[in-house]
């Protein structure tokens, strides 16, 4: 058996093509093109099997918030693996890392959250959300309250429940949607709003679509509304400040539970610990994953607010739900080390006061580029909307796949940036220096120029 350091890129690619079915991938076309083999990471950089250094503008998959190679996290995993690599929490048992992480999560999340239910990923967390909100209404004697409202173009994972909650037609088309999930439009100003009203007025209007939908369905049938504070995988769509407080008001008016999917926004990404704090709303439930361990090891879960916890704990009886890896001790130990690192190093405050504002300033400068129709940032997330005509903000014909062309240039020039249609997005690690932000912006500029040259 060949060890990992001895194979050439071609050998890796051949074995990959022969056996490995990648997520969200056209298997045949990838096998023909060959994958890029990432072999090492340090700080905000990756290296591939050809030795090329790459600035990771996406923190892996929105998760490596503290960067690669943080010794605290590595030590925590190693120590826990030696002490107790696994035990479950099913049969009146628990483990010290799971208990301590529950305590620490109660400390760093908003005050209504005193309880946590652990899962293995964001998708599993959202499956738990579906079960939990329906169980909540069952226990309260309102079993007809089943409908969960979400938004088009949202991403809530790719299990059957996660994919159904999400609003991505490509996912719905393969495997269908579970019953009683309904979608409304997303608050995307560039697409929907800019001709007729101000950004903030648009926020109120976009929130009113929820009110209208709840009224149409009947509030007595609606269990919950779920949304990402900033729609991430949909293209870093930052809503107006008016949007979320109005969503909160509408949910309160109808007694509907409010769920914040914090899988991307959680743990400092937006400049507060959680996105709901940045946007000023008070969810009843919160899904988390990714940044809880900075992606070093899988962990997800649901923070359960007092409104729901009081019903499930005091009156709910047995909750027939759980995963083998709920509260996995190694994952919890890594999460503890990760959160303590974020606290000790003041990572969230730095994103809020220094890094986020600097990224916003540098992104705003990208508006000068002829290809750029709009930029948006929130904390350490940014989007660049590519357009055919800057003055009228006319978009490109989608068949040109301009975003993919730009992404190709990024890959070729040592930057990982993602394309969502023609919206180029970044979510780099939260531990960057200002000089590294400049380096990233320089690479983005260069790749925009190369993309523009290709279009001529
Ligand atoms: N929710 C959001 C907002 C996400 O961005 C993601 C993944 O990108 C998920 C849920 C699903 O998380 P996972 O891939 O860990 O299942």
Automatic annotation (TrEMBL):
Cofactor requirements of the protein: pyridoxal 5'-phosphate
CDD domains associated with the record: OAT_like
GO CC annotation terms, alphabetical: cytosol
InterPro entries: Aminotrans_3, Aminotrans_3_PPA_site, PyrdxlP-dep_Trfase, PyrdxlP-dep_Trfase_major, PyrdxlP-dep_Trfase_small
Keywords on record: Aminotransferase, Pyridoxal phosphate, Transferase
MF annotations from Gene Ontology: pyridoxal phosphate binding; transaminase activity
Record PROSITE patterns: AA_TRANSFER_CLASS_3
Family stated for the protein in its record: Belongs to the class-III pyridoxal-phosphate-dependent aminotransferase family.
PANTHER family associated with the record: AMINOTRANSFERASE, AMINOTRANSFERASE CLASS-III
NCBIfam families: PRK07480.1
Record-given protein name: Aspartate aminotransferase family protein
Species in which this protein is naturally found: Piscinibacter terrae
